[in-house]
Design brief:
Layout (H helix, E strand, L loop, with lengths): L1 H10 L6 H14 L11 H9 L2 E6 L3 E7 L1 H11 L3 H18 L7 E7 L6 E7 L3 E6 L12 H5 L4 E7 L7 E6 L6 H12 L3 E9 L5 E11 L14 H8 L4 H7 L4 H9 L9 E4 L1 E2 L5 H9 L3 H8 L7 E3 L6 E3 L2 H11 L2
Parallel strand pairs: 5-11
Antiparallel strand pairs: 1-2, 1-10, 2-9, 3-4, 3-6, 4-5, 6-7, 8-9, 12-13
The structure holds zinc ion.
Zinc ion binds next to loops.
C-alpha cells in the first residue's frame, strides 16, 4: 500500500512531493504576505485580522494543512443568491472546499466543484482561484429542510462530485469525478482525496447559522499526508496524531466563532513542534465574480440570431441579463440595445 501511495505521489498532476512543496513555498514567499508575529499587534488590529476572510496554510515533512475562515464570503453568497438556511450551509461548505483546494495552486489557476445530488438539491457550484477569489451558486437556492435534518438528505446520495482544475501549462482542464458519499460536502471531499488523489486526508468543513439564519461561522480545514518518510512502515494511521489533537479541541464554530481564536492558534495546536514559521502562508479570501456588463454584452452578441431577437423584443425594463455566478443583474440602456439591434441585422 505504501509503495502504491509513494508511486502515486511521484506521478500525480499536483506533484505533491516534498521538494516541489519547498520550491512552491519559496515562490509564495516572494509573492505573498507572511504572517506577522501576533504578539506584536494591537488588540483591534488582531480582531480585524482574525475576522478578515482568509486561508492559512502550512506544511511539515509529513503533512500539509490548510484552514479557512470565510464567514463573510459565505454571508455575501447567502445575500446575493437569497439562499435558504440549508442551502447556505451546503454552499458555504462547498466554497470552503474550493478555496482550500485552490490555495495550493498557482496564481490564477482555478478549482471548480460541481455537486450533483439526487435529493431536492440539484446542483451546487463553487469556484475558487488561488489568489483568493471565490464564487458559488446553486440551481435550487430555496430548498428548505427541517433544521435538524442531516445535510446529506438535501443533496442526496448517489450523485456525483466533479472536480475541475484549470492549471497553467495544461492544454485542457483536469477533471475528476467521484460518487457522493454522505453528500454533506466534507465526506465528499474526503472521498475525492481517497479515490481520485489517493492521498490520506482529513476534511472538516462547517457553516453555522444563528436563530435568525445569519452566518455565525463558516470555514474548516483539510489535512493532507505528504510522502511518507522512508522508514515509515504503514500509512494506515498517518494522520492520526493530528486528527487526535484536532478532536481534543472544541468544534470549529466554537473555536473561531464564540472563542474568537485565530486560525494560527489552531494551526499551532494541530502541528505543535512540527510547525515552522517560514512554512506558514496567509491568503485573503473574497466572494468575487469577474463578470461585467461588457462581458455580458459580448455573450449576447454570440447568441443565435433567434435568441438575440427574442431578447431584443422584450419589454423595456426586461432587457437585462443576470450573472448566474453572483446574481448581479445587468440592465442594458437604450444605446446598448440599439447597438445590439444593429449587430443583429448584420
Ligand atoms: Zn457575476
Amino acid at each position: 500500500m505504501l509503495s502504491k501511495v509513494l508511486s502515486f505521489f511521484g506521478n500525480n498532476q499536483n506533484g505533491l512531493t516534498a521538494s516541489r512543496v519547498n520550491h512552491v513555498d519559496r515562490d509564495y514567499q516572494r509573492t505573498f504576505c507572511r504572517v506577522p508575529d501576533e504578539t506584536k499587534l494591537s488588540p483591534s488590529l488582531l480582531e480585524k485580522r482574525r475576522t478578515r476572510d482568509h486561508v492559512l496554510k502550512a506544511f511539515t515533512q509529513r503533512v500539509r494543512i490548510s484552514l479557512i475562515n470565510n464567514t463573510r464570503a459565505v454571508t455575501r453568497a447567502q445575500e446575493r443568491h437569497q439562499l435558504s438556511p440549508i442551502m447556505t450551509k451546503l454552499v458555504g461548505r462547498a466554497m470552503s472546499a474550493a478555496s482550500l483546494l485552490a490555495s495550493w495552486q498557482y496564481g490564477d489557476e482555478r478549482v471548480i466543484l460541481e455537486f450533483r445530488g439526487t435529493g431536492p438539491v440539484e446542483m451546487i457550484y463553487a469556484e475558487a482561484i488561488r489568489n483568493g477569489e471565490v464564487r458559488a451558486y446553486t440551481t435550487t437556492p430555496k430548498v428548505n429542510q427541517a433544521s435538524n435534518m442531516p445535510l446529506g438528505l438535501a443533496l442526496g446520495g448517489g450523485g456525483t462530485l466533479r472536480i475541475t482544475k484549470v492549471l497553467y501549462n495544461q492544454a485542457s482542464p483536469y477533471h475528476s469525478v467521484v460518487p457522493l458519499a454522505s453528500a454533506d460536502i466534507s465526506s465528499d471531499i474526503f472521498n475525492y482525496y481517497k479515490y481520485s488523489e489517493q492521498i490520506p486526508a482529513y476534511v472538516d468543513l462547517d457553516t453555522q447559522l444563528d436563530y435568525q439564519d445569519r452566518v455565525t461561522f463558516s470555514g474548516g480545514l483539510i489535512i493532507e499526508a505528504l510522502p511518507a518518510l522512508k522508514d515509515e512502515k504503514s500509512n494506515q494511521n498517518y494522520l492520526e496524531p493530528y486528527v487526535h489533537r484536532l478532536q481534543n479541541l472544541p468544534p470549529m464554530s466554537v473555536l473561531f466563532g464564540q472563542d474568537k481564536h485565530s486560525l494560527k492558534t489552531v494551526l499551532k495546536a494541530i502541528l505543535q513542534e512540527e510547525l515552522e514559521e517560514h512554512s506558514i502562508q496567509k491568503l485573503l479570501v473574497d466572494f468575487h465574480c469577474r463578470c461585467s456588463k461588457d462581458k455580458i454584452t459580448k455573450l449576447l452578441i454570440k447568441l443565435q440570431k433567434e435568441d438575440l431577437r427574442e431578447f431584443l423584443d422584450r419589454q423595456p425594463g426586461e432587457k437585462a441579463v443576470t450573472c448566474q455566478f453572483c446574481n448581479e443583474r445587468y440592465m442594458l440602456d437604450t444605446r446598448e440595445v440599439e447597438e445590439l439591434e444593429a449587430l443583429s441585422k448584420d
